Amino acid sequence: MKKYVLFRLLRATISIVVVTTIIYALIFSLIPRRNIFTSDEQYARVAGKADPRREYENVTYERQGYIDYLSQKELIAKLKATAPNFDGTDTKENLAAAKAWAKSAKGDWKIEQMPTSKTIYATKEIPIWQRVGKFYANLIQIDHPWKIQDKSNPDLKRYLKFTADKSGGPALIGSGTKYKYLIYFDGHFPFIHQNIITLNLGQSYPTFSGRAVTEVLTSGQGETVTREITLPDGKTMKTSMDIHSATYQSPKNQSSRMKRIFKDDYTNVKNVYTDPSMIGNSLRIGVVGVILAYLIAIPIAILLSRYAGKLIDRLGLIFITALIALPSLAVIYTDRFVGSLFGLPDSFTTFGASEVKSYILPTIILALLNVPTLTMWIRRYMIDQQSSDYIKFARAKGLSEKEISQKHILKNAMIPISNGIPSAIIAMVAGATMTESIFLMPGMGKMLPDAIKAHNNPMVIGITFILTSLAVIAVLLGDLLMQVIDPRIQLSSKGGK
């Protein structure tokens, strides 16, 4: 069993890497890089000025990993040893010195000049394989007491220790780490939280510019919530700050007020918001949608399988086939219209995340979109079971068709059904794109097409990575759940496969 799990985890990791690498390579090699400025309002402000525009483009391309960029000032510093008189201005001597440095420097550096001022700078293209390598090299971030290297704060203490301060439950806190609270307990799901191992999926751009992709997807939304909190020293205050999100901030950037409150260098905190995160919204409708889909599909499949080949089964198959062939948009808009007749909001923004009504229609629609396929699959499996020897034996014992269907066929059918539940949840989360977009629901499903339209490449790759990871892990969880239901199932052979 252990060998099987390890083998599947290895295979899952390879699958995640392959899919993410393909998406990364396609996005960064086939889509013109200039498209990333399409939704950048800051770029529009400098578009009419040649030099500021070029500077902004180079800085952004470097931040997005397309190039290495040395501005005039940085190039002067590079040439200080070999050409002390180099000042980056437009002269033959400076150009010759810069080109000589470019030939001797590591990498294929290109010497260029600003359109108007003609000041000299240098760029170097970063090959796609190197960009992919950097993505994976920086993907998993492990926090430790030597994580922060701040020359302006040489006296920064470095330690890890357990504490039970008055600000909350027991916690593992650190100094010299990026996060102050590495492990902490609170009253919110999943109740035990950690910041020791985090994912770095890059910086969002141009939408949510300056924020990490993981932060955009996992942070709360809506308005901030003001409530009374207890500080580590026992004092209380009313604020929207989440003290458990405290990260290191260099003393030169700290405000005196935050320093007085926290009394250390961990003064950069996030706020608490009223609404769930994008991932939270998608998981809510995804999980409930799967449960609802199975609750609808299983009874229908049982009924059709009991009367297989008869009129009710044939009519049911015609109706199910028609639903499968029906475009998803037609289902969504029809259900949306019908729901509005019963007072349900046709847009998530009508009541917001605080109102249960906002989730009803998106959840029902996701469930109904999956019911026909689930019903067809479960019906086929149950019909296949009806010709098994144990079913013939049950009939010979005199059991009714209802008893056979519920006590024998359904019991065995639950094995493959349970195997598909985790994957069904992920399929719903990934397939909620149209539903969330039509209902203006702020979830991952809506964020993905929005990111594609805005050419927010890091966000597209980040969401792809998350969905791929959840999908392959769900397959493993489905196998394990199948063995829990029926211990007779052996997931691995003697070789661990």
Protein topology:
Blueprint: H1 2-30, H2 41-46, H3 50-63, E1 67-70, H4 72-78, H5 92-104, E2 109-113, E3 120-125, H6 128-137, E4 140-142, E5 159-163, E6 171-175, E7 181-185, E8 192-194, E9 197-199, H7 213-218, E10 221-224, E11 227-230, E12 236-239, E13 241-247, H8 256-262, E14 268-271, E15 273-275, H9 278-306, H10 311-325, H11 328-341, H12 357-386, H13 389-396, H14 401-430, H15 433-438, H16 444-453, H17 457-485
Antiparallel strand pairs: 1-3, 2-3, 4-9, 5-6, 6-7, 7-8, 10-15, 11-12, 13-14
Primary descriptors:
497 residues; 4-stranded antiparallel beta sheet; 13% strand
3D structure, described in words:
With 497 residues, the chain is α+β, with helices and mostly antiparallel strands. It has helices spanning 2-30, 41-46, 50-63, 72-78, 92-104, 128-137, 213-218, 256-262, 278-306, 311-325, 328-341, 357-386, 389-396, 401-430, 433-438, 444-453, 457-485, and strands at 67-70, 109-113, 120-125, 140-142, 159-163, 171-175, 181-185, 192-194, 197-199, 221-224, 227-230, 236-239, 241-247, 268-271, 273-275. Strands 5-6-7-8 form a 4-stranded antiparallel sheet, with no helix packed on it. A 3-stranded antiparallel sheet has the order 1-3-2, with helices on both faces. Strand 2 and strand 3 form a beta hairpin. Helix 9 runs parallel beside helix 12 (357-386) and helix 10 crosses helix 12. The relative contact order is 0.10. The mean pLDDT is 88.
